[in-house]
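Hi, here's the filled form for the chain we discussed.

Project: internal
Contact: R.S.
Residues: 433
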Amino acid sequence: MPLRNKIRSRPAPDRLSPQSRSTTPVTDSPWGPARLALTAFFAVDGFLFAAWVVRIPDVRSQVNASHSDLGLALLCLSIGAVITMPLVGRLCLRYGSRPITVGSLALLSVAVLLPAHAHSVTALGGVLLLFGAGYGGANVAMNSAAVDLVAQLRRPVMPSFHAGYSFGGLLGTGVSGLLAGPLSTAWALALSGALGAAVTIGAGIVLMRSPAAPLVAPERASSSAGSSGAADPAGSSAAAGSGTAGTGAGAGRRHVRLLVLLLGVTALCTAYGEGAIADWTTLHLTDDVHATAAVAATGYGAYAFAMAGGRVGGTWLSIRLGQNRLMLLGGLTAAAGMLVAALAPVVPLAICGFVLAGLGLANLFPLAIARAGAAGGPQGVALASSLGYGGMLIGPVVIGFLADAAGLPIALTTVAVAATAAALLPLAVARRA
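And the returned structure, exactly as it came back:
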């Protein structure tokens, strides 16, 4: 069912956030200031994360970390993100997602400077906890604000925000790679942080001054309670009516949690593939398909551009096909592409497979997060994002263990299995909605 049919046009009065208590009329402009500002936030989030990733080898040498030490330090980044996500979901409900978005990106812009000044593994782990908190908080807050804006625009534009993240990441990778020679790690990350702060201030002013979007609150519990409360038109027994309403609300909340959980698992399966492809593509192309290092890097770049391009067209496809059909076709396309990429004996065919995988995976995660937010509000976004982030973490690890046991090509076929699951789970959500 399309997202616009799943969102109430007006939230219940007791669930309004400070930002949604506004009498400003809803705009119908598809590319208004709020959407442009929020897209800028997604882009700078991807840019800052890529700027850090490019400098990981330099920071590793700086702190004299072994592979295992570096792995533990990187785990601190994930811990910071996972711990922060549920908290930020509650803050978005209380204060509104827009100010929390601005605050999270400001924290991330500062935190990206700190790894360059760590001189021990322990210190690096500490600053990465802060970096992870900013990154995880920004992702929940931005997606929550995007869900509200989708409701305001009444268009399924969530993929366009994630396209901004993808292009920001590509830009961050390219710029940071060019600056790797002439600039030290400290200066490169400082400039990245300064750019992040400038965008945060400029886009934040625009976003906060834009007409407020209605908060998308969990609709099932409210609607169930409302319908239960109206079940006794004569009003003969207030106590019985109250008990029925409470039962209906409880059942509604459980239903919402189930829907959000299914969508979170969809995000997990998608992110499993994204993490595995990001970490293992170049190694697979060089070791198993015998590509040169330059061609292998081109292969991953083709995948990344395919994903970004697929997200650019995601809104148009969502409107034409519907979200369930788009997610089904995307998951199956990604599964087929990964089978080709993993098992192809020649380089061109393997790269074509990765391109198909990028196109197929492009809109699965954004749409899963959007639908989780429509069903469960900011806390739904937090739960689905946490599950998705978990998938990105476990993907490379699982692939590594399977590669040792059965070879990397066979291990990469598990991405096809996960993509198939991501294609089918939204159908289960649609049947329960």
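Let me know if anything looks off before we file it.
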